[in-house]
Amino acid sequence: MFTADIPLKPPFSFERLLYRLQTHPDAQLRIEPEAGRMRRALRVGNRSHVVTFQFAGSTEQPLLTVSTEQDLTPAQQVELQKTVSHMVSAGVDLQPLYAMMEHDKHLQPLAAYFRGLKYLLIPDLFQAMIVNIIGQQLNLTFANTLTVRLLQFAGDSVTDQTGEEYLVFPTPEAVARLEVEQLRPLQFSQRKAEYIIDFARAVTDGRVELERLEQMTDEEVIEYLLPLRGIGRWTIECLLMFGLGRPDLLPVADIGLRNGMQLVYGLAEKPDQPQMLRIGESWMPWRSYVSLYIWEAVGAVRRGESAFAEMMKQKNPK
DNA sequence: GGCCAGGCTAGCA
DNA sequence: TGCTAGCATGGC
C-alpha cells in the first residue's frame, strides 16, 4: 500500500471535471462521484497498478490523495506522484486565465460557471495520439466505442483486490503487431486502421521518439509529426493539449470549437479559420484553456443546463 | 432519410 | 499551390 497527497493549485473543481467526464467517457476510468473518487490503471515502473484518486475539500481548497494497493519503491513513488500531478494539471495556476477572461464579456460567464475546471491529461503519449487519430471526423460517442474495442482487442487489464478489472491501453508493440484486417471488423475504416498501425510501427522501429516531444516547442512537435501519414495539424494540436498539457493551442480545424465560438460570441455564422485565429489572439497564452471552456459551454447547452443558459443571457443580452 | 461528427489524404487543376 | 471528393459509420 502506498498513499500520498498531491498538492493542487486552487481553484480546482472535481465536480466540473466529473461533468466533463460524463460527456467524455473514458473506459479506463472508474468514477464514483458521490465518494469523490476515481480509479484507473497506471503504468508505474514496468507494470500496471490500479491507482485511486481521492478528492476532498473544495474548489478553493482542493485536496487530492493518491493510493495504490501494492507497495512501491521510492523511485516508483516519485514517478507515480509526478504522473498524477501531470494528469490533473496540478501545478497550473488558473488565476491569470480568469484575469484575462474577465476582460472579455463573452468569456466572463464561462469563467464563472466552469471555475476550477482543468484538463485531465492522458498520461501516455502513444495512447493520446491513437485516441486522437480515432477521433478524427467522428462524433465523440462513436470514437469512444472504437477506442473501447481497441482496448479490449489489443490491450491488457489488471484486477484489483476486490476483483474489479481495469483496462490497460495496448502498447505500441501490441498495436504494431496488428494487421488492418483485424481492425476492420471492429468498424475501423480502412484508412483509420492503417494510420493507427503505421503510427505504432513508427514508434516501435524508432522513426518516432515520443520521449523527445517533452523537450520540444509546440511548433517543433508539429513539424516533427506532420510528415506521418494520417496525422494532420489538428491531431498534433490535440496531442499537445490532451497529452502534453500545453496551454496555448487553438485547433481552428476543430468543428466543435468552431460551433462553440459561434455560440459563445453570438456570431450569425460559423467563424472561418482566420476569424477564429483573430478572436483567439486575445486569449494568448491560454488558448488551450479557453478552447476547453468553450467545448464545455457547448456541452452544457447540449445537456440543457439552464443555469448556464441563464448566465449567458445575463452577460450577453440580445 | 439526410446532414453532421472535436479531419486527412490523394488526385486533380 | 490550392481546392475538393471520398472516406466510413454512428447519432440525431
Helix/strand-derived class? alpha+beta
Please give the CATH class of the largest domain: Mainly Alpha
Mean pLDDT over the full residue set: 94
From the N-terminal CA to the C-terminal CA, the straight-line distance is: 57 Å
Which strand order spans the largest sheet, edge to edge or round the barrel? 1-5-4-3-2
Query: Which percent band covers the strand fraction?
Result: 5-15%
What is the fold named in CATH at topology level of the largest domain? Endonuclease Iii, domain 2
* Main sheet characteristics: 5 strands, antiparallel
Structurally, the number of domains stands at 3
Shape: globular
Q: Helix share of residues?
A: 40-55%
Number of helices: 15
Give the beta-strand count.
7
Q: Which second-level CATH architecture of the largest domain applies?
A: Orthogonal Bundle
Radius of gyration: 20 Å
The run of helices and strands is: EHEEEEHHHHHEEHHHHHHHHH
Low-confidence stretches: none
What do you see in this structure?
This protein has 318 residues and is of the alpha+beta class. It folds into three domains: 2-89, Alpha-D-Glucose-1,6-Bisphosphate, Chain A, domain 4, CATH 3.30.530; 92-121 and 245-318, Endonuclease Iii, domain 2 (Orthogonal Bundle), CATH 1.10.1670; 125-130 and 140-231, Endonuclease III, domain 1 (Orthogonal Bundle). 47% of the residues lie in helices and 14% in strands. It has 15 helices and seven strands. The strands form two sheets. Strands 1-5-4-3-2 form a five-stranded antiparallel beta sheet. The protein has a two-stranded antiparallel ribbon with strand order 6-7. A hairpin with a 2-residue loop joins strand 3 and strand 4 (47-57). The longest helix is centred in the last third of the chain and has 16 residues, at 287-302. It is globular. The mean pLDDT is 94. The protein binds a DNA duplex (13 and 12 nucleotides) through residues 132-133, 135-143, 145, 187-192, 195, 229-235, 238, 251, 253-260, 291, 295, 298.
